[in-house]
Amino acid sequence: MADPELEAIRQRRMQELMGRHGTGNQPNPEQQSAQEDAKREAEERRQMMLSQILSAEARERLARIALVKPEKAKGVEDVILRAAQMGQIAEKVTEERLITLLEQINSQTAKQTKVTIQRRRSVLEDDD
């Protein structure tokens, strides 16, 4: 009963709609690869700048910190790079200076915990 031409038109129309929907939602592979290349290049530049700013021991310590707490290491790297861009760092950052910087950051971001004990009063207790 179905006309083969009509079925072919339906198939082509369905493919067009699926094609538009797929490209509208996700970036095409060329854009995606360009974004990945840009991210990779930015990370390479970042690492190159850090290698110029940090001594070998400081880089090693920061790498060990990154293994345990990547977000903290990224934050320390950001602080160091910002200071270098503003001209606050004149010489290579040694391991000792990195440790003091880490201590300062830890003291600023330390969470203060407070425990409050509330004693429940029983109905039978008499406060006369």
Automatic annotation (TrEMBL):
Region (Disordered): 1-45
GO molecular function: DNA binding
Gene3D superfamilies, per database record: PDCD5-like (1.10.8.140)
Source species, domain of life: Eukaryota
Bias-annotated ranges (Polar residues): 23-35
Listed Basic and acidic residues bias regions: 7-19, 36-45
One cellular component (GO) term of this entry: nucleus
Family: Belongs to the PDCD5 family.
Protein name: DNA-binding protein DDB_G0278111-like
